Amino acid sequence: MTIKKVTNNKFLKRIGLFLAILGPGIITGSVDNDAGGITTYSVAGAMYGYNLIWTLIPSFFVLLVVQEMNARMGIVTGKGLATLIRENAGVKITFFIFLGLLLADIGNTTTEFAGVAGSLEVFGISKYISVPLVGFIVWILVVKGTYTVAERIFLIFSVSLLTYVVSAILGHPHWSEIGHAIVMPQVHANGATITMILGLIGTTIAPWMQFYMQSSVIEKKLKISQYNYVLADIIIGCIGTVVVAFFIMVACASTLHGNHVIINEAKDAAMALKPLAGEFSSQLFAFGLFIASIFSATILPLATAFYVCEAFGFDAGIDKKWNEAQEFYILYTIIIILSVGIILLPKAPLIGISIWSQVINAILLPVVLICMILLVNKKKIMGKHVNKPIINIIGWSTVVVLIGLSLMLLGSSFI
Amino acid sequence: MTSLTTFYLSRLLGCNIYDARDNVLGRIHDVYVRIYTPLDENQENRPHVTGFLIRVNGESKEAVLEDFQIVKFGTHYKVQCQGVTIVSHEKFSDAVLLKETILDQQIVDINGRKLVRVNDIRMVVIPAGTFVVAVDVGIEGLLRRLGVNNFFKKILKPFGGKIPSKFILWDDVETIEPNTLNIRLSQSRSKLNTIHPSDLADIIEDMSKNYQASIFSSLDEEHAADVLEELRVKEQVHIIESLPLGKAADVLEKMPANEAADLMDHLEDDKTEQLLLEMEPETSEEVRDLLEYPDGTIGSRMTSDVLTFSPDQTIADVLEYIQEERPEMESLYSLFVVDGSNVLKGTFTMRDLLITEATTPLDKVMNINLNRVNDYDKLDSISEIVSKYNLLAVPVTNDNDELEGMVVIDDVVDELISKRRSL
Fold first, then answer.
1. pTM
2. How many CB pairs (< 8 A) connect A and B?
3. Of A103, A144, A415, B337, which has the fewest beta carbons less than 10 angstroms from its beta carbon?
């Protein structure tokens, strides 16, 4: 209201509007570079040098197209993706999608807590202290309903993801080599490489993010007349995601790959950076990892519990009390307990969980994408806002490529 | 082989249709029902199956089945009938499709006062026809749809366990799907009118935005105004913007002027102007006055719905007036005495009305120690007066001591609480 009185100036009014709308795309973008993402980018950088950086380019366009579809569906229908799938595809398909999503997200949440454990170990804090503590804080944040405040704080902190730019530059990367590797990557198409590429795509475009994006657009009660601002928000978010991913890969590639350091976790990357790029670079890397992990460890279990409940018709939402939305809170609690529990196992196969949950994501992604493209092309649901041909082409090609990669992966593991 | 009298919609969908000689005539794709909610309580008011959408050779067709029967043999179900008559689409223009518009969709559970998702639909065959009796919103319905219900039942049986099931009778639900609403509104009154405004507001906040406006149009104007008052600003704005101008103006007129002004403060200026022009001149004038006060002043929160009397009127006059006008509860929190030029002279309460001789003139009864606020005072200044003098309403006057309205405690309580919380 106060804005209304101050801003007679059209330009200021526009900026005000944009700032009010800003958020869904940018938050989604920063949650995108979570612990699992950082791990995958680090490992890819260390193992393949600059040779897999090119995957970020197609990832960017697919990310953009997919999120735009989600935003448009959210604005036009006012319904979450889970609801739309349930209402149009029936119980069976919904069940299999959400079973997959639940499994993948338990894996992903475990990865987030692994990120918390790893990053704090760099600062000398034992995981047996850090993980239960962070798990409890995250749980209480949601159950006691101060989540929205937390979300804003995290959003500000997510700027710290830019520390990766500094980490990368401290490693003195060879820019000409990077350029060369993007244009002419040198990779051998074997099972390991395909798993890596699938992992990279899976972490950049995670299925649960589609649900998250659509819900946050709805939460903001956006109108189709504000579409251009929403699109700008999404583009900024996608650029942010890809830029951060790029610098993580560069940081690891220019230091670790050249020195033939093999890493398995993001923490290893932080540790390995110490002798090669200095203590400061190492700590920056760990700090970025910590913030990203805790941010995603809060959002991911919450979002997962929410979509499962949305799809199956249970009451859900952090504005509801425990006994009003039991299923929601119980599911949420189970996801956190399982994830924390797995990390605390003395010989937890963390690398496996991390990479494979990304791979499940990549296999689940085409299923979710197919549902989305079918939904967004339905005149009955979208009216005149159905997909333009170009978006359908990109969408369907993504589906085909992902299915192809998944099949190749399956094939290569049998040969 | 047994013919079933009750069955689930999920069993029926996808069933083959056989004639008496066991030829397959098609496959059930969806079911047309006519939903009516007659005003007469005793009448049968469950949705009545009037026809089917069937698939014949890959094509969808509207059809009526003669002597329709659903039979179970072993674990399979099939539909048997004497014959299938393909009919034109128009025949079902007043009917809705069960699978498309109700199954898997959200409906309002009237008694539970919340939104629930329909997992399955329970139907019954009686001589009068086939009817919907209840919706299944429990886990059992989900498992049945997944085809694993019997499997789980067998596993749980030795342990005495049961799959939680939950049914709601059709009488206790209301659909919200805009298409079904449009068809029905011409003939019935929404069951939602029986839900308390604040509960209904909570339900509407949970709905997806495209349904909010249509649900809203199905309510009586009075009820709609009460519900609108209870909604969050975001939803208020959305609903007013999506209602047709005339309807929106009608609802706003029914709201207290201060609530309407608060809401309109959040609309775009053009929209506000259009609405004010559409409203009754008397109400819109009141709202317009209130809109002029800057945010955070007493004036922006006050109501101008006040009851004023002259000093020489008697208690009996006041009672007669109130009985005739039947004002809202809020307007009775405090009553005012003003002179010919609307200058505030005193206040009196409902207690005074009840305990005083009917012939007593008001100037003998009224309280002349005036605790009042100025219309341009800051909103904070009111909390002190309210708590110190235990007032339900505080008169608001302008610089010339003329009565402008009053601030009712209900309208500032949220403000005061949120102020405390943010500290």
1. 0.76
2. 45
3. A415
